[in-house]
Amino acid sequence: MSEPIIKIENVNKWFGDFQVLKDINLDVSAKQKIVVCGPSGSGKSTLIRCINRLEEHQKGTIIVDGTELSENTKNIEQVRAEVGMVFQQFNLFPHLSILDNCTLAPIWVKKMPKKDAQELAMKQLEQVQIADQANKFPGQLSGGQQQRSAIARALCMQPKIMLFDEPTSALDPEMIKEVLDAMVNLAKGGMTMIVVTHEMGFAKEVADEVIFMDEGMIVEKAETKEFFANPKSDRTKLFLSQIL
Amino acid sequence: MNSLNFLKSNKQNFYYFLYLGLFLFSISIIDVAINAFLKINITSFLPGILSIFLPLILGFVGLNFIRTEYSGIKSLDIINKNINTNNFNAILTLLIIFAIIKATPPSLSWMIFDANISGDTKEACTGTGACWTYVKVWFRRFMYGMYPNDLHWRINLAFILVIALGFFGFFLKDNLKKYLALYYVIIYPIIAFLVIYYLISGGAFGLVWVETGAWGGLSLTFIVSFFCLIFCFPLGMVLALGRRSNLPMIRYISIGYIEFWRGVPLITVLFMSSVMFPMFLPEDFFMDKLVRVIIAITLFEGAYCAEVIRGGLQALPRGQYDAAKSLGMGYWKMHIFVILPQALKLVIPGICNTFLALVKDTPLIFVVGLAELAGMLALAKTNPKWLGFAMEGYIFAAIIFWIICYAMSKYSYNLEAKYKTER
User: Fold this and answer.
1) CATH for B133-147+210-422?
2) Of B337, B342, B422, which is closest to A104 when you measure between CB atoms?
3) B167 and B161 in contact (C-beta within 8 Å)?
């Protein structure tokens, strides 16, 4: 196997006295799709937020595409430009139209000419099937449309890795499917993805590996079929019995 | 209260009660109005006490008749909901209406009917009302202070130029639009300063030098407010960002600055700027009194602006910061394109508040010997030829200040509506 694109070694993190991440070790190779699941408060969101340094880890090393995350601001911005992220609450910029949301970062961070950025944005919006909403503002769209716009916005930076932090948790049941479809398409396109989600159907369809976290530790890490067919730890079994 | 139920309307006799109630209510108003305007007491045939309270009783019964839960008539429902919810409110409503009616004729006659405006001297004021002659004679002083009369065109021209330059930004070509903020924050203040300096101060281009001590009146109000407004806003923005910075040094300096300037009264700041400040300067260094005052007010109001803007920054959800960061934006790009446009929109009412307070604080520069509009009034009212007209002067100033401030608040409502976004 080639050199992993994300390398997480012995990562520990505390919020005050409370340890959220305990000795996390994880390698992700290019084009791999990983689903992270676990009960709330288990540290799964914190883990993926550490990968683009929205949270700082206090111990251990995280290397993303050959760049180590440290205090160095240049490194952090470089990693963030390569790692796209989709949030639970969409976090679109409400004062900009969907198209401007998508072109803002390419123009100002990647110094892309405005015309190229718009073409790229329209292509990405086409991919998630909301090109017709490009000139509307986020507040005028449904939750599902907003989340798909957020995916398009992240893709406009042409990232190598995409992180999804519970992308469907804030959505109405009817809208979950359209967002998951967009994510499945993305996965089929060969993107490296780390997805925190409770959508086990999505995990079964797309994931190469599933990670189960609890109390800040990786309890179980297995290939998808293996994970669902015969989970090893009791904690995982209990979780799966409740969620499936 | 059940025994009084026959006094309440029901579905059948609703309109009967409504018309009767409105009739009684109008009679009570008309009675008071006739009494106030024509000085005729139409109920004088009644015994004393009853004659005085009759309008109140009639109005009260009338409002009681009108009062219903919900009628479906829009204007009636608005009245019932806002000024006629219960007996107590009905009485308060009536008393306020009566007070307004009673106060109208005397104030009108003082302000208009018995007032004088002709003539040029105090002796022209023969009526019992206001002496607007005073304001007329002193008008130029109130507007331009001690500035020489034949040079007033320089002030007018400077203001016209500054306003025209202010609108200049709207006519920029599209490809220059991105420099708009730069223009307004840096270039415009400098140009405005140069225009005002060279035109009003003079001393160059063949214009006679007029020292700032002679400036005054409303034009000085405008000059001080204008420069303080355009400088204190960027200062406040920098301080607000500084107070939220991750770098302890910058954060503590900002906090210290804000708490210091918010903790001292403006009047002491102004006093210090004119008396203490020159002591610390080298002897051959001279800074004009007006410039010192403008700097002092700017530093002072900047602290207030900072706290208002910080309120807006704090109101933004953390997700906005996360999203901007996750797209690879650094601190400045994130703030310029994502955070500040949203936060500044949120603080328009608060900033407008601060600016209005600033404009109304300018009269305080009187303590350092600069006489803007209110300062000129204070001078004029002590003029031996014109003693005893302080009232007219202050009413005049109040109207001028009200117009300025109302225009500013209207403009802020416009901005709010223009930049409204849905979340």
Assistant:
1) 1.10.3720.10
2) B337
3) no
Tokens of A118: 């718009």
Separation between Cα atoms, residue A98 and residue A120, nearest integer Å: 13
CA distance B154 to B160: 10
Q: Which of A165, A161, A177, A182 is nearest to A67 (CA)?
A: A161
ipTM of the complex: 0.91
User: What pLDDT is attached to residue B7?
Assistant: 59
B384–A contact, CB cutoff 8 A:
no
Angle, nearest 10°, between helix axes B87-108 and B14-38?
30
- Rounded to an integer, the average pLDDT of B208-227 is 84
Kindly state whether A105 is in contact with chain B, defined as any CB-CB distance less than 8 angstroms. yes
**Can you tell me the distance from the alpha carbon of A22 to that of A17, in angstroms, rounded to the nearest whole number?**
13
Whether A109 contacts chain B with CB within 8 A = yes
Interface contact B319, partner A, CB < 8 A:
yes
* Structure tokens that stand for A6 in this block: 């994300």
Residues 6 or more apart whose CB falls under 8 angstroms from that of A185 comprise A127
What tokens appear for A9 in the block? 């070694």
Q: H-helix or E-strand containing B155?
A: helix B152-168
pLDDT in tens, B243-286: 999 899 999 999 999 999 999 999 998 888 887 777 777 777 77
C-alpha A188/C-alpha A80 separation (Å) is 23
**Cβ–Cβ < 8 Å for A189, A205:** no
> In this structure, what is the dihedral angle of CA atoms B67, B68, B70, B74, given to the nearest 10 degrees?
-30
3-state secondary structure of A179: helix
Query: Are the beta carbons of A23 and A11 closer than 8 angstroms?
Result: yes
Section B312-331 average pLDDT: 92
The amino acid at residue B271 is F
Q: What's the sign of the alpha-carbon dihedral B79, B85, B87, B91?
A: negative
- Which residue has tokens 């025994």? B3
Which of A78, A139, A157 is facing B421, going by the closest CB pair? A139
The one-letter amino acid at B62: G
Length of chain A: 244
pLDDT in tens, B145-157: 888 777 778 888 8
Range list for CATH 1.10.3720.10 in chain B: 133-147+210-422
Please name the residue of chain B whose CA is at the shortest distance from the CA of residue A51: B326
